[in-house]
Amino acid sequence: MKTDTEIETLITQVCSSAKTRKLLSTIAVLGMAVCLLPLLPPVQQAILKLVMAHRSLNIQAQGRFLTLLSLPLIGFAACALLFCCIFSRKIDAVLENQKYDGLFSKIALGITALLLVFITIFSYQHGRQWLSSDHASEMVLAKLLAEENALVSRNWHYSTEIRLVYQTLFSMPLFKLLGNGNNWALIRAITVLLNNIILIASYIFLMKQTKIKNKWIYITALFLPLPISFEYWDIVIFGGYYVFFIAQLFCCLGLFLKLLESSSQGGANTKSWKVCFILFGLLSLVLGAQGIRALLCVHIPLMLACFFAARFGARKKRPLVLGAYGFISCGIGFLVNYMLHIKYSFHSFENMRLDNLYQNFSIKIGQNLSGLVEFFGYAPGESLLSAKGIFGTLALFFTLWVIFQAVTLSRDNASAQKQYTALFFICAAAFNMFVYQIIDGEVTARYFIPFLILYASITGFLLEQTGQSRLYRTALAASVFLFIFGQSFLNFQTLEKRDINSGRTGYISYLAKNNLTYGFATFWNANVTTELSNGAIELAGLEPDGLMADKNMFKIQGWLNKVKLYEPSYFAGESFLFLTKDEWELARKTGRPFTQKQPDYNDGAFVILRYPSAQIIHEEVLDGQ
Fold this sequence. Notes:
five-stranded mixed β-sheet, 63% helix, 4% strand, mainly alpha, 26 helices
């Protein structure tokens, strides 16, 4: 098998002729141009209109054509990679020239700023297309906090954790600043912008402690606001659920690395070291006060990383002491979190149970592995012969590559900061997969986001490494960038076309015209309606899984609801019951008494029944409430 040096020598010999090099570069450039043309939105829209208007093609044939329309992205990536390989020596020389470091940093920061502006505008223009009640619940909470002039509310049923250091730090004051908050889409878009700024700033702080060059820090920071997968977009970039937790994780790990460096240089008694020591403990405590996620994703993995480094590496014992200090502080914070149950309503995880390994062991392994690869854009169900299918296949290899490189870096004794970051990444992934394996409950890809996002750090370390051939380094950098930007392009393209809320326009208009401002609906139709109506329509969420063939229960759910919605006397005016067509048909089949009433609104997808008051709905519709 040829080594990297032999391959580079071969390519150099092939390209030694100016005519050959010019021919190959011309082919690569023309290939990129030809493949880029059908990827441009105006061209795609024109082609789509032409295809959809062609009546001789059935729906299946049209679908196949649309799938093929995405394949030029693969050709563009291949031609771009070829171009980079042809000029690998020049590209690597420019990247390694220190006089260009500042320029690369400025370009990366400029592109990041433009990307943030694009994401903000994109979220404002299209966000309501894929908005869900999970998203909308955060806005309803922020509006409640603005009304109460508080950062945490006793009048809200939180879900899996209490929101202490959270995106409501932005959205709550925005509701107060922007008048009556009649433009929730604008408030959300500004929140998305501020969230991503916090995410990038905390990442830069972490990477500054690893002592790699600024250009690689700013270049890899560009990865964070890119939707490498829909799950990442939904939970982090747009949804914002994990943004502040990840930012705190970055800062906590960054403070640990800063303490580690000061200790190794004999500065453990300096004033700056003591300040960092106190901040590290306080941040660990605050993280613990927010819930068990801090222990699972931050401090237990950090303790494990310190233990393995002390046991098998050449590091001193002091990092283990720092890890234990952070763990104890986080544990105290978790006790505070448990005490907060006395005053606030949120899930405590005390109902967690061990899973039946005999029945579910192999299933859980599959779910764990799926969670890893889906973070990087593996999309089950996509056609293999499509850009998404091919990039999804590449996501498998990219996942393995990141893990392999993290393992390699964790064994590198040249840099304590890089070693501990890589070792933390491995321990976080391994420990959480173990926990998900033995705990009862389904494993989803979002559980892996808080630590898998460190792939950006791992990539930054590898891009800075010297010693490999120029061809290898250039091909590696080009492959990583093409993969991440390719996945992001595909996800932006999908998001622009995705629309799950267009059918809601009719009933929202009906409710507004008839001055119906309060009602009841299953969770996935409740808070989303509130946000789509800019808060004009308030709904109490019913159990989302209650209306099933084997249950058919009508009761208010116990999370992501205002506490006052449990009170039958909360709203005295005319109210309504809002159901989907399937929920209405199920209620009719099971003989619910209220189905004898004729719907006041029925558009074929949604049904609305009007009642003189909410009290009557509690008595006649809701079970035991």
